[in-house]
Amino acid sequence: MAEEQTEFDREMPGLGRACTVALIGGVLIGVIGAAFRAGLAYLGDRHLEFVTWAHAWPWIGWALPVLLGAVGVALARWMVRPQPLATGSGVQHVEAVMRGEAQAASIWVVPIKFVGGLLAIGSGLALGREGPTIQMGATIGSFLAQRLRCAQEVLRDLQAALGGAGLAVAFNAPIGGAMFVFEEVAHSFRLRLTMVTLIGSGTAIAVARAILGSAPDFLVPSLVAGDTWTLSLFFIFGALLGLLGVLYNKCTIFGLDTFARFSKIPIELRAGIVGAIVGLVSWFFPTLVGGGDPTAQAILNGGMALAPLLLILVIRWFIGPLSYSAGTPGGLFSPLLLVGACLGAIFAGALNTVLPEPHALSAIAFAVVGMTAFFTGVVRAPVTGIVLIAEMTATTTLLVPMLIATFGAMVSSSLIRGEPIYDTLRLRMLAGMGRK
After folding, report:
1. At what angle do helices 333-352 and 152-171 cross, to 10 degrees?
2. Is 306 exposed, middle or buried (0-12, 13-18, 19+ CB in 10 A)?
3. How confident is the model at residue 17 (pLDDT cuts 50, 70, 90)?
4. Which segments of 223-381 does DSSP mark as H helices, in order?
5. How many other CB atoms are there within 10 angstroms of residue 38's CB atom?
6. pLDDT tens digits for 310-364?
7. Percent of the chain, pLDDT > 70?
């Protein structure tokens, strides 16, 4: 009891100031995150229109999205040159600061992440919006904490809490954003951390919803978990996705290593080549580039045949790691969700070719569960994955299949000793900074 009281007393000093920072920071990341989401939605529509327009000149039009991708991605990569911490997702830096392994980022990361993310994802790279919003939120939190002279341990809590608020805004998932802080970033529940996280996420999502509305990210029809016997299939499916998640992580790291291997080529030129390749893909498959939400929604609408699903899987599996290798601002979560949904629909569709009609599986249900299980296999944060997808799809009827599938993913990925992606990225970042 004495130890609990001591811990309570230790976190009480400065708690009011920390809550004030969380409130102010929540408002700021709510506005900035909403603007970022709106900007990406606008640019995504314009990119599709641009590629469609370019098809009016089939012999030369293909060069236009290639040129757009090359210039846009090269410019996005150039923008991070003065602030290398703005590269990639940024989640690994948020975690490193929480562990005391790195210093908080400069406030200049916020505009660089905002504009660079719009350029990169708007040019077609298969990256997620959540990476920039997480790091922008964390940077705002640490900046405000420094200005209000908060202690270092308070600053770490605030940057983690407002990073979670950024995730909440990115996916319209306030509880998922909070769980991300507790499970993935801090690996703990503490009084001060809990309070600033709830304040930050709650304020940010209230502001963002006032701007963008409160509709869930994905519209999913009413679903049922299915017969009891299908639960074993969800476990097998989850175990498979755990293995594939480890493989996807290796592909991501391979892409980063390959990109770094060509060090004699200027880094912006290398990034431009990546953008050009993705631009060429967009000429043939304009809906399969970018963040991937429209394609994920199409899968969740149901009725997609196996052939197009396999095509989506192959393309997104390839351009996801390729896009991340360029080092522009952009996250990993959104692309993972599309791959997971695609794998779920393929798994159900393949089994339905041999199962009798009365026992047909719901491709939509497996797509939703697939998002959760693949997220778990890659990130290794099962509770966060379950809560995020439940909020993003506004469905709770699949919680038991989600639990079973994420358990399967955790078992298989742990048995083969696959490292969570952000642990690997954090260690790479620290090695690049000359730290272990």
Report:
1. 50
2. middle
3. confident
4. 230-261, 267-284, 293-300, 306-325, 333-352, 363-379
5. 13
6. 999 999 999 999 999 999 999 998 899 999 999 999 999 999 988 877 778 899 9
7. 96
Residue 216 has pLDDT above 60, yes or no: yes
Taken in order 292, 180, 346, 245, the sign of the CA dihedral is positive
Q: How many residues does the chain have?
A: 436
Question: What span, in angstroms and rounded, lies between the C-alpha atoms of 383 and 375?
Answer: 10
Q: Which of 241, 278, 283, 273 is nearest to 369 (CA)?
A: 241
Contact predicate 237/405, CB 8 Å: yes
Q: 314 is written with which tokens?
A: 């192959």
Q: Which of 384, 430, 431, 426 is nearest to 90 (CA)?
A: 426
Task: Please give the structure tokens belonging to residue 44.
Answer: 């995504």
Q: Which residues contact 327 (CB under 8 A, 6 or more apart)?
A: 77, 80, 87, 88, 259, 267, 271
DSSP class of residue 359 equals: G
Distances (CA, A) of 197 to 94, 110, 151, 204, 407: 14, 20, 17, 10, 26
Cβ atoms of residues 89 and 425 within 8 Å: yes
- Is there a contact between 76 and 120 (Cβ–Cβ < 8 Å)? yes
The DSSP call for residue 214 is S
Residue type, 394: A
List pLDDT tens digits, range 82-103.
999 999 999 999 999 999 999 9
Q: Are 184 and 160 in contact (CB under 8 A)?
A: no
Please give the single-letter amino acid code of residue 86. Answer: A
226: alpha, beta or left? (left if phi > 0; alpha if psi -120 to 50): left
Torsion, Cα of 82, 87, 92, 97 (10° steps): 20
CA distances from 260 to 254, 266, 270, 316, 427 (A): 10, 11, 9, 22, 16
Report CA-CA distances (Å) from 33 to 90, 207, 317: 15, 10, 27
The letter for the amino acid at 148 is: L
| Distance of alpha carbon 205 from alpha carbon 13, whole angstroms | 27
Q: Please state, in angstroms and rounded to a whole number, the distance separating the CA atoms of residues 201 and 166.
A: 8
Spatial contact of 223 and 398, defined as CB atoms under 8 Å apart? yes
Distance, CA of 156 to CA of 334 (rounded, Å): 26
CA atoms of 219 and 167, how far apart (whole Å):
19
Q: What are phi and psi of 397, to 5 degrees?
A: -75, -10
Q: How far apart, in whole angstroms, are the C-alpha atoms of residue 376 and residue 409? A: 6
